Fold this sequence. Notes:
By secondary structure, this protein is an all-alpha fold. The chain has five helices and no strands. The chain has helices at residues 3-10, 14-23, 37-51, 56-64, 70-96. The longest helix is centred in the last third of the chain and has 27 residues, at 70-96.
Amino acid sequence: MNREEVSRCYGLSMELLEQYENWNLRKNGKKDFSYSAQDLQRLSLVVLLQGIGFSWEECRVFLCLENRETSCRLQMLEQHRNCLLYTSDAADDLTRV
């Protein structure tokens, strides 16, 4: 699938796809972007990570650590988890007033 097909079929923004392509995560170094199943899995992960507050750069780093630095990836997730829990607790406090 090319960029336009992926955007249309999966509802992903062109901005997301362009960012992903610029990260150059492909092991074979090819620049032709025919999206593979692995690319689609990574994009799904990026959408999830952005949903919990990861920046573009944090998403890129998280994907670059794939299959290597599990402890670093867990630490990144934990940091965002704590932030989400703090935000959620603060919102709960506001609704109790």
